[in-house]
Every structure is written in C-alpha cells, then in structure tokens.
From TrEMBL, chain A:
Lineage: superkingdom: Eukaryota
Protein name stated in the entry: IGL c3502_light_IGKV1-5_IGKJ1
Keyword line: Adaptive immunity, Cell membrane, Immunity, Immunoglobulin, Immunoglobulin domain, Membrane, Secreted
Annotated Ig-like domain residues: 2-89
Coiled coil (UniProt feature): none
SUPFAM superfamilies: Immunoglobulin (SSF48726)
GO CC term (a single one): immunoglobulin complex
InterPro entries xref list: Ig-like_dom, Ig-like_dom_sf, Ig-like_fold, Ig_sub, Ig_V-set, IgV_Light_Chain
Xref: Gene3D superfamilies: Immunoglobulins
CDD domains noted in UniProt: IgV_L_kappa
Cell compartment(s), UniProt: Cell membrane; Secreted
C-alpha cells in the first residue's frame, strides 16, 4: 500500500505569510494527488486536484506542485480564513490514501 | 447542486454491525462515471478511506478493513450504504460519504458513530 507522509504536522504562521506544506508518497503516484482543507466540525473541502489544478471557487493564493513522490501545497499570503488542517490524498490502483494532516495555527 | 446526507444510528454496541446510508440528491447515483465512497475520522485524528462503490456496482475496500466492510448501492432510492461488522471502540468516528473520482469533490456533512455498550 502507498503511504503518504505530510510535513510539518503543525505549522505556526502569521497573516500574510507564505506557507508551504509537503506531502511525500512511498512510491510514485504520477500526479494523482489532491489537497483538502478541513475546519473543525466540517467536512474536508477540495482545494487542488491532479497535483496542481485549482478546484473551481478556490482562491488563487492556493497552489499545488509536484509529481512522482514529492508534492507541495503553497498558500502565497495566509489569510485569517486559512487557519485550518490540510490533508493530501493519493489515488493509485483503486486505493485512496490520505496523509496524516498539517494543522496551520496562528503564530 | 449535488448533496449527500449520511444517516444511521449514532450509537452501536461492541461486536455489532455499524450500518449507515448515504442519500444523494441533486443528481443520479447511476448516471455518471463516479465512485461513491465512505471515509471516517476518529475524534481528533486524520481521515481514513474505508471503501467505495462504482456506479456500475464494483466495490473497492481499504485492505485494512476489507474483512469487515460491505458497501452496496440502491439506485432506485439514489442511496448507497456501509456495513462494518464486529465493531470495537476503535471504530468510533465521524463517518463521511462522498462522491469521487481520483479526488473527493462532494462530501456529506458527516455523522458521529460511537461504539459503546
């Protein structure tokens, strides 16, 4: 099975900061990587799919990059609404796996 | 706008079977090439994919749960269902249903299921 490892687990940042979260796959997943934002008590929200495609309605300050085994989610200028937990998720051979999550906290 | 809604008991006894249903509205569960899946999240923890059913009826399960999981679809009611057998306290979680392809784009609001006697 493919394992997904996110880093860091927790990130403290200020409004306006550029934030980068990394997700590594235990084997190549091509570009089958998605990113989600989850706020307490809510379902996850899709931000990025196929590694770098922005979901409709998601602000352009969110971007994704990478392929193979290493991927990044970047928030170009952190806004108050962005403090949340972020998950990566891979798809390979009819199996779907999530990373353990990265909590973005207010510094 | 597609909407998904989970329903089922919020409390299940240990060793019994957890049963949940997801009702899909705003679109047909059988009219397009999507998977319909279940994901769970234990309190304070991360997301775990449980399994999915394709619109054609093919099923796919997380290997770690495969022996206990059954997912089925009722196209006449536009619903799909989850059964998880022999539950323990470790199965206590918020259970989400979702539509997906490679990524999960529509989610239900989630329902908390507690396993306790």
């Amino acid at each position: 099975d493919i394992q997904m490892t996110q880093s860091p687990s927790t990130l403290s940042a200020s409004v306006g900061d550029r934030v980068t979260i990394t997700c590594r796959a235990s084997q190549s997943i091509s570009s089958w990587l998605a990113w989600y934002q989850q706020k307490p008590g809510k379902a996850p929200k899709l931000l990025i799919y196929k590694a770098s495609s922005l979901e409709s309605g998601v602000p352009s300050r969110f971007s994704g990059s990478g392929s193979g085994t290493e991927f990044t989610l970047t928030i170009s200028s952190l806004q108050p609404d962005d403090f949340a937990t972020y998950y990566c998720q891979q798809y390979n051979s009819y199996l779907w796996t999530f990373g353990q999550g990265t909590k973005v906290e207010i510094k | 706008q597609l909407q998904l809604q989970e329903s089922g008991p919020g409390l299940v006894k240990p060793s019994e079977t957890l049963s949940l249903t997801c009702t899909v509205s705003g679109g047909s569960i059988s009219s397009s090439s999507y998977y319909w899946g279940w994901i769970r999240q234990p309190p304070g923890k991360g997301l775990e994919w449980i399994g999915s059913i394709y619109y054609s009826g093919s099923t796919y399960y997380n290997p770690s749960l495969k022996s206990r999981v059954t997912i089925s679809v009722d196209t006449s009611k536009n619903q799909f269902s989850l059964k998880l057998s022999s539950v323990t306290a470790a199965d206590t979680a918020v259970y989400y249903c979702a539509r997906h392809g490679a990524q999960f784009d529509y989610w239900g609001q989630g329902t908390l299921v507690t396993v306790s006697s």
